[in-house]
Amino acid sequence: MREAGRVVAHALAAAREAAGVGVPLQELDEAARSVLAEAGAGSPFLGYRPSFAPVAFPAVICTSVNDAVSHGIPTGYRLRDGDLVSIDCGAQLDGWTGDAAITFTVGTPRPGDLDLIDATQQALDAGIAAAQVGSRIGDISHAIDTVARKAGCGMPADFGGHGIGRRMHEDPHVPNRGRPGRGFPLRHGLVLAIEPMLMAGGQNTYRTDSDGWTLRTTDGSRVAHIEHTVAITDQGPRVLTLP
Prior knowledge:
Blueprint: H1 2-18, H2 25-39, E1 61-65, E2 68-70, E3 84-93, E4 96-105, H3 113-129, H4 137-150, E5 160-163, E6 170-175, E7 191-194, E8 197-199, E9 206-208, E10 215-217, E11 223-225, E12 228-233, E13 236-239
Antiparallel strand pairs: 1-3, 2-10, 3-4, 5-6, 5-7, 7-12, 8-11, 9-10, 12-13
Helix pairs in contact: 1-2, 3-4
């Protein structure tokens, strides 16, 4: 899984490097596709069609811009100065899967965007630190929620992290809110995708675009989404989606 995670990290870096004012989102997807192809990796996103989706997902990355929470489809939309961009990417290599997401600004950051990204990173770091053998899913959830609440941010109630291994989405679900000491026990060898999504407006509600995929905040506030695939080991949590 570490090798699949490494491919994800390189694909995200390539997509970010391709981003700039005037660049269409499709070019970011093409950059990530090239990395996957060079590594001989497949995409768990491309062709994915869960029960809620009217069509299969047509890309290898999700590109969620400004008020988009997640699942944004890379289109011909050209990035503008001040856009806040979240990219989610997965890779399948030798039967194993990695999944991660990053958020960054294009051009001149809007007021508050860097603070939002920082708070989301802090929430992820807290969630990872809580991913210890002998703890429970609720400990991760509570750690993330504590940071989000302190920052005055909302989070989409129905979405969170997940188990990951042979497939992208496996049990257990990892909510971004929860009570410490509750939920699935964490054992050596369990691997989770931990992914806080912080909504700057402080609300937790969202709506779905007409494409059936893109989720947006109902108040129009901006969102940051950062994710890592993390292995729980007797030596502590190990992040698998680093370069």
